[in-house]
Inverse folding.
């Protein structure tokens, strides 16, 4: 079980260490990615627990609550932090229903962020404003033009990823009449290199066997690509 209860209670009386700051700051990019994915119906809030009077250090879609960076922690967030501290420390998050200042329903999750030595240094809060227009909830999930789709292989192991990527690269190169026959293997390796496939274990061995060339030949092409 994580021992952090007493540490969290006096967190507002200390400063973040450099490592703590890096951990907190790493959530900012996470927030931006989630906001891009889920849309404007969600509010994302990042709190620094070392300054409860000005705890919000990043907020996205703050128009829902009227809050900005530098705003204090909420009474509910404080009580939720206390609740988490008093219950199972191995589950440092809580989901709940509340109401906005306008009396509208909000579905929320508050997650404790740990720093060095499992000290609670921040809170990451996600608030879904259920009174948001349906259009704002669905806008990021509506159908998009086929040209905007990207291909992603959801596979069970690295062998499948390597072989699928190789087959796709081979098909592309074989269909390209501009690539001379004697350069096709090199072009296939180039495509796979730029996809990062050779970072996977056994990729060189599998690909050399499939292309019926030596591993040294594959390594030679890779070194040439790395030097560019």
């Amino acid at each position: 079980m994580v021992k952090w209860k007493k540490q969290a209670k006096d967190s507002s009386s200390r400063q973040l260490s450099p490592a703590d700051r890096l951990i907190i700051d790493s959530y900012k990019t996470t927030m931006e990615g989630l906001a891009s994915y889920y849309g404007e119906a969600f509010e994302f809030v990042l709190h620094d627990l070392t300054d409860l009077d000005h705890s919000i250090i990043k907020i996205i879609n703050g128009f829902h609550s009227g809050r900005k960076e530098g705003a204090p922690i909420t009474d509910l967030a404080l009580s939720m932090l206390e609740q988490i501290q008093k219950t199972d420390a191995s589950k440092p998050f809580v989901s709940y229903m509340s109401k906005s200042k306008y009396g509208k329903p909000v579905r929320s999750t508050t997650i404790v962020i740990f720093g060095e030595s499992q000290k609670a240094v921040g809170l990451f809060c996600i608030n879904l404003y259920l009174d948001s227009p349906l259009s704002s909830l669905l806008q990021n999930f509506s159908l998009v033009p086929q040209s905007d789709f990207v291909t992603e292989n959801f596979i069970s192991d690295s062998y499948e990823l390597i072989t699928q990527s190789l087959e796709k690269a081979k098909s592309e190169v074989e269909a390209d009449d501009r690539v001379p026959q004697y350069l096709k293997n090199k072009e296939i390796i180039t495509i796979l290199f730029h996809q990062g496939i050779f970072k996977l274990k056994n990729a060189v061995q599998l690909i050399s066997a499939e292309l019926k060339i030596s591993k040294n030949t594959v390594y030679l092409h890779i070194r040439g690509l790395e030097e560019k």
Summary: The helical segments are 5-9, 18-38, 75-86, 134-138, 158-174, 184-194, 203-211, 215-226. The longest strand covers residues 105-114. The two ends are 50 Å apart (CA to CA). Residues 1-13 have pLDDT under 50 and may be disordered.
